[in-house]
Amino acid sequence: MATLVLDNPALGAGGALRPGAMPEPARDVNYAQDESSDAAIMLRAATGDEAAFNYLVGKYHRAMISFLYRMVHTQAVAEELAQEVFLRVYRSRESYRAEAKFTTWLYRIATNLAVNYARDTRHERTAQNVYLDAPDEETGTTPDLADDELTVEQRMLRDERMAAIRSHVMALPERQRLAVLMHKYQGMDYRQIGDVLKLSESATKSLLFRAYQTLRDKLKDFV
Amino acid sequence: MESTMNKCTGMETKLADLLLDPESAPAKVKTHVAECDSCRRELDELRAAMSALDALTAPEPSPYFLTRLDARMREERAAPPQTWLERLRARFAYGPPMHAKPLAAMALSVMLLLGGGAYLGVANFEQPQSTTTAVVGDLQTLDNNAQLLDQLEAISDNSNNAEAQ
Question: Which domains does chain A have, with CATH numbers?
Answer without folding.
Answer: 1-16+31-122 (1.10.1740.10), 147-223 (1.10.10.10)
